[in-house]
Request: fold
Amino acid sequence: MNKENYNVIGVMSGTSLDGIDLAHIIFTKKNEKWEFQILESETIAYTESWIQTLKSAVGFSKKDLEKLDIDYTALLGKSINTFIEKHQLQSLDAVCSHGHTILHQPQNGITLQIGNLPEIATLVNQNVVCNFRVQDVAMGGQGAPLVPIGDRILFSNYDYCLNLGGFSNVSFEEHGRRIAFDISPVNTVLNFYANGMQLNFDDKGQIAASGKVNLDLLKALNAIDYYTQNYPKSLGFEFVKEIILPLMENHHIAIEDKMYTFVEHIAMQTEAALPKKNGSILITGGGAYNDFLIEKIRLYLPEMTIFIPEKKILEFKEALIFALLGVLKLRHEINVLASVTGAEKDHSSGFVYFCEIR
Reply:
C-alpha cells in the first residue's frame, strides 16, 4: 500500500494509565519527507475498575491474562468505534494500535501487549496494524523503545526527544545512528503516591514542590543497577513494583518528601543520560505538565533549550508515532531500528489484520 497520503488512527495506552489515546492523522510523503496533521484527538479515560485491573495484571495467571486480553480487545474496539462515529471518520486506511503493555521482560524473551487479538479488525470494521513489539523481542531486541524512528522521521530538528510518561525515554542521533532508551520511571511512581492522597496525579507538581529532598533515599535511588547499564535498555512496570516502590517504602518519610526526592531523581538521571548537555530538547508526555519536574530538569541542564510543543503533539505524540509505524508496516518499510532495541537487524514489525467487509 504505497501512496502519498494516508488517513489513519493512532491508538496508544501508556503505563501511566491516563486512558486510551486516539488521534486521527493524515500523513503525506513529499520529496521523500513525511509530513503530518493531527486532526481529531482525545483520551478516553479508564474506569476505576479498569485502572485497578491493569495495575494488578502483572501478577495474573496465564489463564487470567488470556481472558483479560479478550476483554481489553473488546474495550479497545468499543473505544475506537466511539471515536470513529463521534467524528464521522470515513475512508480510513488503517487503525494503528499499540495496545496496553502488561508484561515486558525482554531479557526473558517476554513482552505482552493486550488488545492486539485478530478480532480487533472485525470489531472496528477497519484494517488494523498492531502488536509492534513481539517480533523485535523474538529477534533478540528489547522490543522498546519503538518511538525513536518517528522522532528521526518527524522531529529531526531537535537534538533530543524526551518523553515523560509512565517512564521517561530519550532518543537522539549519535554518529549517524539513532540511539534511544528508557531513562527512569516517572508518572508510574509519582501517580502512585498521588493516588495515595486520593488524587489522580500531582497537578503541576505542587505536592512534590511542598516537600524536601531526602538525601538517603536519593542516594539509594541513584545507586540502582539499571542506571549503570549500557543501552539498549528498557523498563517495565515490574521494575517499579519490584525495585522502586519497595525501596521508597523502606524510607519512612512524608509522601511530599518521597515525591520531591523522586522528582530530583528523575531530573538527575535525565541529565546523566544525555551525552551532550546543550542543544535543543523536545519534551512531551504528561510529565511536561509537571512544572516542578520541568523546573528541576532546567536546573540540571542549564545550557539546554527546552521546547514544549502545542497540546496535540504534547499529549498525542506516541499515538502519532504508532500511527506512523503502522503506515510504514503497510508500506513494508523499516519501522524498528536495531541501534535502538538491540535486535539483530532493522526490520518492519507489527501484525496486519485486514477487515474483509468494509
In short: The chain has a mean pLDDT of 96. The two ends are 17 Å apart (CA to CA).
